Amino acid sequence: MPDRPLTGSSHEPDVLVIGGGAAGLWCAYFLRLAGHTVTVLDRDAVGDPVACSYGNTGFVANGGVPLAGPAVLRHGMLSVLRPDDRLALPPTLDRRRLHWLWQLHRAGRPEQVQRSASLMAELKRRSLEILHELRVSDLPHPDFTAAGVVQAYKTAEAFARARQALPRAVAAGVRLRVLEPDELRALEPDTEFDIAGALYNEGGGFLRVPDFIVSLARTLTEMGVDLVENCTVDGFEVSGRAVVGLRTDRGEFRPREIVVAAGSWSDTLARQLDVDLELQPVKGYTITVRRPDNAPRGLVLLVEGTVAVRPFNDQLRYGGDMVLAGMDTSISRRRVARVLRTVHDHLPAMRSTETLQVWTGLRPCTPDSLPFIGRAPAYDNLIVAAGHGHNGMGLTPVGGQLIAQLIGGSPPSMDLAPFRLDRYTAPPSWLRPRPAKPRPAQPVGGPR
Ligand SMILES: Cc1cc2nc3c(=O)[nH]c(=O)nc-3n(C[C@H](O)[C@H](O)[C@H](O)COP(=O)(O)OP(=O)(O)OC[C@H]3O[C@@H](n4cnc5c(N)ncnc54)[C@H](O)[C@@H]3O)c2cc1C
């Protein structure tokens, strides 16, 4: 959408949302439905490759596995010795990252993993409902495909573990079952699998991104949301407990409420207001190729390698890999090769003739894999909708709904305590990140 002069109303909306990725757009959608005037600001154009919502695999299913687990830290740290591992935690002296790792370790306690998994499942169940409703309503959303998802296991041990955990997932409402080999053949007749077994998640679906994001943004402008692209927020004005203004490279804004939904950049923005978010970017890759004839027809998760294979029309996208190394989006050929090798190990006969795109994105990750959905305790009008991690496409629809309920003052349809910004316990003092340097309150329109 081309830049255009900003109107007076976009400068003083009821709600200003920072970030035009999935999180920001879903907030805007539900806020506008509730009757608020809404402005969304994004540093880039909606659908720009920098946003994590641009190039992901778009998998949305009920159920969810948190990043943290009893052995995740040890596993990640050993990646120094196994550079091809799916999870890489390179050594660091960065205190914020060390602090986050400490919280990741705590979030790996079995009771917390279980709690996160069931909350994620509930959030995703509600998001799927929203996506299904949109599909049958008048809104143009052809980019959501509701079909089951095959979870493929390479080794007998991993498959046995998955089977063992199956009753618990089913009890939590996940529509998961064992897929017998002949059922897999009927479902995926073109594709040869070299695996020990598979489960089938009947409640799965996927979004085609970035098309879905772009069409959601178009719908928002039709609904009357002011979408201001190529506009970077670079300062705030504070008065007491209120953030009264925002400074951007395209002018000043004075909204009643502010929602920070800037993905992996939310932490840097919030710190300008002395709000600390336990958030780290976790880099992932997608590789989009021309779809070969023997590609799967539906979405397949290669569980041990944590790679998703997603077909759409004449394209096939592989997505995965997790590297915790700050805001680095460079492409490592070795890690691309790891993703391709994982695909080849599971689907040995499949070959594509053409690579269309290699992309990296930064997942905005919290240690317990639950998003931040809540008010910043020090302010009356600052809200955060960030930290949707590796499940953002599945968590942001309901996240936006909850944010609209919070701002509208109606009782939220879910308890928001698990998503509070200040839910993490204090770390040992030697690990605490140095406090942000006190910043003089910047008047709106002040020096850049
Ligand atoms: C390889 C990979 C595969 C994935 N696969 C899936 C999947 O299959 N299913 C799933 O559910 N999730 C998946 N995800 C996760 C999902 O992509 C993210 O959780 C989601 O996109 C996060 O959305 P967001 O809106 O919070 O952040 P983003 O999409 O990154 O949006 C943040 C926006 O804020 C803007 N911004 C930042 N700073 C400023 C500023 N100062 N002023 C103005 N604007 C600003 C940015 O320009 C950006 O547009 C995957 C991620 C990766 C990397």
Descriptive terms for the model:
6-stranded mixed sheet; 11 helices; FAD/NAD(P)-binding domain; 448 residues; globular; alpha/beta; single chain; binds flavin-adenine dinucleotide; disordered C terminus; 9-stranded mixed sheet; 21 strands
Give a written overview of the molecule.
- The chain has 448 residues and is of the alpha/beta class.
- It has a single domain, classed as FAD/NAD(P)-binding domain, CATH 3.50.50.60.
- 30% of the residues lie in helices and 23% in strands.
- The chain has helices at residues 8-11, 22-33, 72-77, 95-107, 110-136, 156-171, 181-187, 211-223, 266-271, 333-346, 392-408, and strands at 15-18, 38-41, 59-60, 87-88, 144-145, 149-153, 176-179, 197-201, 205-207, 226-228, 233-239, 242-248, 251-253, 257-260, 280-290, 299-302, 307-312, 315-323, 355-365, 372-375, 382-386.
- Strands 4, 6, 7, 8, 15, 16, 17, 18 and 19 form a 9-stranded mixed sheet that branches.
- Helix 2 runs parallel beside helix 8 and helix 5 packs across helix 11.
- The chain starts with 7 loop residues before the first helix and ends in a 40-residue tail after the last helix.
- The structure holds flavin-adenine dinucleotide.
- Flavin-adenine dinucleotide (FAD) is lined by residues 18-24, 41-44, 50-53, 56-60, 232-233, 261-265, 269, 284-286, 308, 319, 361, 363-364, 386, 388-394.
